[in-house]
Design goal:
single chain, mainly alpha, Arc Repressor Mutant, subunit A
Length: 154
């Protein structure tokens, strides 16, 4: 397995979760408890809770592993551009992760961007695989997931 769902959930939370507000200090540089509590209460009332389904994360990991294998085994049809053929595999992985719910495709891609690049968006995957080459791309993905596990234990 590329990583465990709880490590991935913690990583995604760190990347996507809203940061707590900075402490409110008084003129002496000490925390103004009353003002700080008021800001925290307002922030808590206005913050959506971040929740990632463990089942979805397990599916994300499993489908990403299958995606890498599919990329490695794909025989390119010269009648169609290679990036489009690669993208089809990414879309298939995204659909399988979310039980064919096409409204969630963006979530799959966003998670993959976060894991690989620490941000929610980036280049189109098919073009990226085409430019990097399948071998280099799959090696990068495997290494990034492995590093993610290592970060959790450091």
């Amino acid at each position: 397995m590329l990583t465990t769902p709880n490590i991935l959930a913690a990583y995604l939370y760190r990347q996507m979760g809203e940061q707590m507000p900075a402490p409110i200090l008084n003129a002496d540089g000490e925390i103004d408890v009353e003002a700080d509590n008021a800001v925290l209460s307002a922030w808590s009332a206005d913050t959506d809770s971040f929740e990632v389904s463990r089942v979805r994360l397990q599916q994300f990991i499993a489908q990403t592993m299958l995606l890498l294998t599919d990329l490695e085994e794909l025989v390119i049809d010269n009648a169609e551009p290679a990036p489009a053929q690669y993208m089809t595999l990414f879309y298939d992985a995204a659909k399988m992760t979310f039980d064919q719910d096409k409204s969630q495709l963006r979530t799959y891609f966003m998670w993959l961007y976060y894991v690989l690049y620490g941000r929610p968006e980036g280049s189109r995957w098919g073009d990226m695989v085409d430019v990097m080459g399948v071998e280099a791309f799959t090696a990068m993905v495997r290494e990034r997931f492995a590093n993610l596990v290592g970060q959790a234990y450091n």
